[in-house]
User: What shape does this take?
Amino acid sequence: MTAARYAGEETVLGTRCRKIAVTAGVASDALTVWVDDEHIRQIRAVTVARAKRSA
Assistant: This one.
């Protein structure tokens, strides 16, 4: 993880949650996490596919 920031509030499965945006590494890989006072309610991951190059 390289950074995390508060990204507002949303309702997940009927529960009000804090939304946290997290970036990982130097690429554009990212996570969004929704948490309430006791649980992680949802996680969304976005990864950047890296193509292999050959010479």
